[in-house]
Amino acid sequence: MIKAVRGTRDLLPPETALWNFVEAAVRDVFRAYNFQEIRTPIFESTELFARGVGEETDVVAKEMYTWEDRGRAESDRGQSLTLRPENTAGVVRAYIEHKMWDRGLNKLYYIGPQFRRERPQKGRYRQFYQIGAEVIGPASAGSESPARDAEVLEMLSTLLDRLGITGWNLELNSVGCANDRAAFNEALRKALEPVVGKMCVDCQRRAVTNPLRVFDCKVPEDQPIIEKLPRISQFLDEGCRKHFEQVQEILTKVGVPFSLNDRLVRGLDYYTRTAFEFTHGALGAQNAILGGGRYDGLSEALGGPAAPGIGFAIGEDRLVMSLQESAPAESVLKKPDVYVAALGEGMNGEAARLVRELRRHDLVVDLGDESFRLKKSFEAATKAGAKYILIVGENEVKADAFALKNLATGEQVSVQRADLAKKIRQ
Fold first, then answer.
1. CATH of the domain at 373
2. How far apart are CA 51 and CA 212, in angstroms?
3. Is pTM, for the whole model, over 0.85?
4. Which of 36, 150, 221, 388 qualifies as a cystine partner to 338, CB 3.0-4.6 A?
5. Within this chain, do residues 62 and 146 fall inside the same structural domain, yes or no?
């Protein structure tokens, strides 16, 4: 038997009802904050992620699905392509390609699959789903304001509350600007020199190529060493320090709780200034629901104009897992209002006509088959979770009135065709 590839999975009903519930809530909340949807390709030039995400990140160095194009056109052959491991770089690429700075401040969101070859574990898959948003545009449009950071964080707290996810924690840090990072990296290299030999192989590599990535380490034995390393907060210049203070002031003003975590650096190289994560205890050790931050130099790194921005990505798989703690899928699944049972030869057509009429009134209707006996029709209606069963037999069609039975109470009444939708609603 052929099974789903390791690290992928099928999303089945009733669980998909919970996914649809989440995505509907996301669209409603984002609309209230004037975000508009963008849809980018699921594969891009590999260079986009190497330049945008960072060649020394684990994502680019270890986890991407990359291949060489073997297209028929000579211009295609030899091009390196990659399934997107994240979506921010693609959104910024689209921003540059379509000269979206002409629109001023762009508030964009996306929902879709991403791909990383990492070790599958609870809530983490090789094909996973992200909900993300980006605020990007010229500085003159207010894109680098701390008010933008605070608005995005307040929107996320509103979304989690709307979904009924309680007990979340917002962790904040500032990773500074390019000059801050250069000074911090130099201090990290010096601090790591005498101890890096005791650390894992990945940290030994990171200490040379990109010391900041040492903070991504999850190896328990390395944590006491990491705990003693310098922190970026000690190296922030006055502009970055003031920016971060203003973000905190606004969040306090609007009542969004947060805690500071000066070890939080995020896993991608394009982040500057504000970095954040929302965590939730239901997910165990790997407890991040979503994360993001500011990326003021990403557009320039990809060949575009200066376009400060801030964004985030929600791991939808993990968000749904958190939601299942309080809202099982069955609680949001829309079950049939009525099951229409065709009884007797030649009744399939009559039942189908009646079903069509009922569905035009936005009722959820399930349809049986004339080959079913009455007992089987009742069993099918009960298994589907229908509220009513509607009998369509020869006598009912002649009278243009149909037997409607409430499966919960057992009450049965005869209802004229014209009154059926109204009665079922009541």
1. 3.40.50.800
2. 17
3. no
4. 388
5. yes
CATH of the domain at 91: 3.30.930.10
Q: Helices (DSSP H) in 164-233: which residue ranges?
A: 178-192, 201-209, 223-227
What's the rounded Cα separation, in Å, for the pair 57 and 248?
28
Tokens 């407890």 belong to 287
Question: Domain range holding 403?
Answer: 335-425
What is the per-residue pLDDT for 412? 93
Strands 169-174 and 259-260: parallel
Q: Which of 338, 370, 364, 333 is nearest to 351 (CA)?
A: 370
* Pair 267, 374 in one domain: no
Together in a domain, 304 and 244? yes
Are residues 285 and 339 located together in one domain of the fold? Answer: no
- The side-by-side arrangement of strands in the sheet containing 66-68 is 43-45, 80-83, 66-68
Give the pLDDT confidence score for residue 407 in this predicted structure. Answer: 93
Do 203 and 215 form a contact (C-beta atoms < 8 A)? no
Name the strands in the sheet holding 309-315, side by side, starting at the edge strand that comes first in the sequence. 36-37, 106-115, 127-136, 309-315, 288-294, 272-279, 169-174, 259-260
pLDDT-derived band at 329 (thresholds 50, 70, 90) equals low
Q: Is the CB of residue 336 less than 8 Å from the CB of residue 353? A: no
Per the structure, how many domains does the chain have? 2
Closest CA to 267 of 82, 46, 62, 65: 62
Question: Residue length, the chain?
Answer: 426
Residue 212 lies in a domain: no
Asked if residues 276 and 172 have their Cβ atoms less than 8 Å apart, the reply is: yes
CB 348 within 8 A of CB 369: yes
